[in-house]
Amino acid sequence: MPESKGRSKPTYTPPRRAVAADQGPNARWFVPVMLGLMVVGLLWVVTYYISGVHQFPVPQIGRWNLGVGFALMLTGFMMTTRWR
């Protein structure tokens, strides 16, 4: 009975993955800023809705107050993706 030949080329080895340099823990200010942005954004939107004639927080920008509040909250939520 014939014998099979050995493998002539080396076995497959997957390429190494580069490890990101920023794998360390976050700075001490990161979590308070993240939570602060979310809370301030929520308070901004709630203040806009509670003020009956929409004169708070900034009356000159009108309905853009909602955009400001949601932008603050969204920034805080986006920071949660970098939290370690």
TrEMBL record:
Membrane topology type: Multi-pass membrane protein
Top-rank lineage group of the source organism: Bacteria
InterPro entries per the UniProt record, alphabetical: CrgA (IPR009619)
Keywords: Cell cycle, Cell division, Cell membrane, Membrane, Transmembrane, Transmembrane helix
Segments of this protein annotated with the region Disordered: 1-20
Primary location group: membrane
Transmembrane segments: 29-50, 62-80
GO cellular component term, pick one: plasma membrane
Compartmental location: Cell membrane
Pfam families in the cross-refs: CrgA
One biological process term in Gene Ontology: cell division
Similarity field: Belongs to the CrgA family.
Chain's role: Involved in cell division.
Protein name: Cell division protein CrgA
